[in-house]
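Quick start: read one record
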Amino acid sequence: MNASCADWLSDRVRRNISQRAGVPAAVGAALCVVTACLGVACSEEQYNPPIAGGGSTTVAAAGSAGQSGSAGSGTSSDGGSAGAAGAGGAGAEDTSTKVYAFQSSLEGFFINYYCTGPVVNTNCIQLQAQPATDVADAGVDAGDDAGAGLQQPVVNDFFTLEQDPSLGSPAPGSAKLTLRFSAGSQSANFASNFGSGTEPGVDLAGKTLQAQVRMEAGGPATTYAKMYIKTGATYYYADSGQRTLSADSWTTLTFAGFGAPSYPTAPDAALYTLGDVREIGIEIGATDIAAPVTASIHIDSVSY
């Protein structure tokens, strides 16, 4: 029915009633009710037309947004043909960067090697990673991540390593390393290990290592930092070279290209494999220490 069907029907009913004066009032009333219902039916059809069977638009879900599907053809009476599906978008290239932000823990980094000198690289001690000792967080609700706790400092006579929630770059949270220098040249390695005897380490081919390092005021003027990697089962070593740290200022350490390994002596280049990096670390140290002095170092945003 078209939009004027109610008016037409109403007019027809009125004419019939007028021509049949003898029609009982009840019948006339019934005809009026029928007229009203038909009017409603006309109104419902006018404002809620039948839905065509096809013609929907499909947006591709894969990768970036695909092109919209074409509209279905046909009239409301035959439903129309279904719209064509949109073309799938191309998948995005994986350009993700791994970042250790140390906002609530040390994220597997620890002091795995330190040297107390006084001659450079002497009196050195190798350490193994220790399981984190957490203190339950009273603010954690039941069902939340109950593993979120306060990681306890690692302390000995030479260093203290802890997570500092208050200071970081670019956001609060960092690893804080306190070194109690006493004489000559002393250093500590802040590191994380990857892989195993049967599993390769991380792949750094074509990537760049970076970190933010800051020394608090009061540390030795000779305090330095350098990034390093160790590759393969033989742990061939290469580093970025030393950067002297300035007090109360964040220094960006960058290690790109990775160069040739410097240890062991005359290494086999075939075993220096950037696709199998077993250790990533930052050496923090100082030289020419004439009297005991403490340096507080913050490390943040280690990335590759």
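The chain has a mean pLDDT of 74.
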